[in-house]
Amino acid sequence: MLSKKTLGSKSLKTNVIERKTHKVSGKLFKIARVIALFGVFLPTYTLFFVLVPVISLTACTIVYSYLEYQKELQLALGDR
């Protein structure tokens, strides 16, 4: 059974991971926006310039979030 202390700590760590993920993904998606602008100038490759960055950065964001979670989990287990 989880105590209130455990739940609060877990919630706090999740928020920290969430903030880190949002900070990194925000920067990456700004780059994707610039790449997508190339699609305006090259209409035959518009789909490529829009979809590839968005899909790949979404995958990178998910992986980054998972790695941050694992790092926090290892730190929490190391504290015991």
Describe the structure.
By secondary structure, this protein is an all-alpha fold. The protein has a domain at 35-80. Helix content is 90%, strand content 0%. The chain has two helices and no strands. The protein has helices spanning 4-41, 46-79. Helix 1 runs antiparallel to helix 2. The protein is elongated, with a radius of gyration of 18 Å. The two termini are 17 Å apart. The model is unreliable at 1-8 (pLDDT under 50).
Distance between the termini: 17 Å
Low-confidence stretches: 1-8
Radius of gyration: 18 Å
Overall pLDDT metric: 82
| Basic shape | elongated
Tell me the major beta sheet. Answer: none
Helix-strand topology string: HH
- Number of E-state strands: 0
In DSSP terms, counting alpha (H) and pi (I) runs of 4 or more, how many helices?
2
Q: Helix coverage percent of residues?
A: over 70%
Derived from helix and strand composition plus strand pairing, the structural class reads mainly alpha
* Strand residues, percent: under 5%
